[in-house]
Specification:
262 residues; alpha/beta; Spore Coat Polysaccharide Biosynthesis Protein SpsA, Chain A; seven-stranded mixed β-sheet; 11 strands; 40% helix; 19% strand; globular
Length: 262
C-alpha cells in the first residue's frame, strides 16, 4: 500500500454533543494514517465544541460558525481538502478502524474511479449496538437513476478533482445531497466497491433529520431524480411518488383521529 496517498475526511456537525466524540475517535483511530481531518461545526449551542476542543491538536482544521445547512458545511470542508480522495462522515455516524485502509487499497487497484464505497454497511442504534448489516451493490449511474436510488454514504470516498469539476454539493439539498453528488460524479467516472465489511456504522434513532422530516426527505429524492433527468416511468420515480403519497396520507389520518382521541 502506498502511504503517500492522502485521504481527506470532513465531519459536518450541529448540536451533536451526544455522539460527536465517537465520530471523532473513529476517524483518529483509522489504521491508515495519512488522513487530513476537517471538522465543520455550524455554531453549536450544546457541548459539541467543548468535546471538539479536547481533540484540537489532532484535527487538522476546525471551523465553528453559522452555516446554511449540512451541504454548505460539507462544501466548506471539501473546498479546504487537499487529499486525493475526499469523503464525509456525519457527526452521529462512525467509521470502523480499517475503513480508509480498504478504500486506499481499492483506489490503488482502480485509480480511474469517481466513487469508492463499501458495499456492506451496518445500522447501529443510539448506543452503538448493531441493528442489522446489509449489502447494496451499485454498478453504475443508470442503475442508481432508474432502478434503485439508495446509496451508502458512510465510508464512501470520492475523487476530489471530480468533486471540484462537478461543482461540489448543491447547497439547496438538505436531505439527499449524497444521491445528487453520486449522480453527478458518475457522469465523470466509474464506481468501485469492497466486498467485505461492514466498515462503517450508520446510526438510526428517533430525532434524526431523516426521521423527523420524512415527507421533505422523500420530496428531495424526487427533486434530485428529476434534476438528473429521471423519467416519470422509472421504478425509482414511482417508488418516491408512492412513498410521498403514503406519508401524506398517514399524516392526514393522524390529523383526523387526534381530536377524537382527546
Amino acid at each position: 500500500m502506498n502511504p503517500t496517498i492522502k485521504i481527506s475526511i470532513v465531519t459536518p456537525s450541529y448540536n451533536q454533543g451526544q455522539f460527536i466524540e465517537k465520530t471523532i475517535v473513529s476517524v483518529l483511530n483509522q489504521t491508515y494514517k495519512n488522513i487530513e481531518y476537517i471538522l465543520v461545526d455550524g455554531g453549536s449551542t450544546d457541548n459539541t465544541m467543548e468535546i471538539v476542543n479536547r481533540y484540537r491538536d489532532k484535527i487538522d482544521i476546525i471551523i465553528s460558525e453559522k452555516d446554511n445547512g449540512q451541504s454548505d458545511a460539507i462544501n466548506k470542508g471539501f473546498k479546504l481538502s487537499t487529499g486525493t480522495l475526499v469523503g464525509w462522515i456525519n457527526s452521529d455516524d462512525i467509521l470502523y478502524p480499517d475503513c480508509v485502509e480498504k478504500i486506499v487499497e481499492l483506489y490503488q487497484n482502480h485509480p480511474d474511479g469517481a466513487i469508492y464505497y463499501h458495499s456492506f454497511n451496518e445500522m447501529i442504534d443510539r448506543d452503538g449496538k448493531s441493528i442489522k448489516i446489509y449489502q447494496h451493490i451499485i454498478p453504475d449511474r443508470k442503475y442508481l437513476l432508474k432502478t434503485d436510488c439508495r446509496v451508502i454514504q458512510q465510508g464512501s470516498f470520492y475523487n476530489l478533482d471530480l468533486v471540484k469539476k462537478t461543482g461540489y454539493m448543491d447547497a439547496a439539498n438538505h436531505y439527499c445531497m449524497d444521491l445528487d453528488l453520486w449522480l453527478s460524479l458518475l457522469k465523470e467516472g466509474p464506481i468501485y466497491h469492497t466486498q467485505d465489511g461492514p466498515h462503517a456504522g450508520f446510526r438510526i434513532y428517533t430525532g434524526t433529520k431523516t426521521d423527523t422530516g420524512k415527507e421533505k426527505f422523500l420530496k428531495n429524492i424526487y427533486q434530485v431524480l428529476r434534476k438528473h433527468k429521471a423519467k416519470i416511468y422509472y421504478p425509482t420515480m414511482w417508488n418516491e411518488i408512492y412513498y410521498i403519497y403514503l406519508v401524506i396520507k398517514v399524516k392526514k389520518i393522524i390529523h383526523f383521529i387526534k381530536p377524537k382521541m382527546r
